[in-house]
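I am going through a labmate's work and have reached the protein record below. What it holds is a sequence and that sequence's fold in token form. Please read both lines and tell me whether the tokens look consistent with the sequence. Do not assume that whoever made the record got everything right. Thanks in advance; the entry in question is below.
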Amino acid sequence: MLIAGEQGAALRAAPWLALLSWFVYASQWRPCLRVNGTGFEVINGLRDHRIPFGAVKDVEVRYTTAIWVGDKKYVSWGAPTPPSALSSGFQHGANLGSSFTALPVNERISNHPETRSGRDAIAAAWQRARFDGLTSTHEIVVSRWNTPVVVVGLLAVGAVVATALM
């Protein structure tokens, strides 16, 4: 828009683009689940939760990872999803020399090493901590707002409102 000479349109669109960029960052880029020697760190859009292994009652790993602490469930937005068919362990090559093979390049399922996904690593870390008796120095969940992300989001919303009122 700036190159075409539409400075007014570019100035009106900029707050919306900033808000869209913030939303994509907060909902798609930032969320993750980290596992360290003392527990889980669930990082979602606006809030972060540090969950020590000693406080965890159960870990549910399905289409998302949910960590149960008492009666409260902490769901990770950025945990690994179930493995897809593309990560099944087969080399997806075509054997064009023979039309009688059931699997690509005449591969057999038993010839492949077991593929472990990120979901397996999450469950394995908690199981190791549970059976090895690892505990942290505190047994409470520490939750906090991520102040920079919240402030930038509020500024982006404020810019959109200010532009709409002009």
In short: Confidence is low (pLDDT under 50) at residues 90-115.
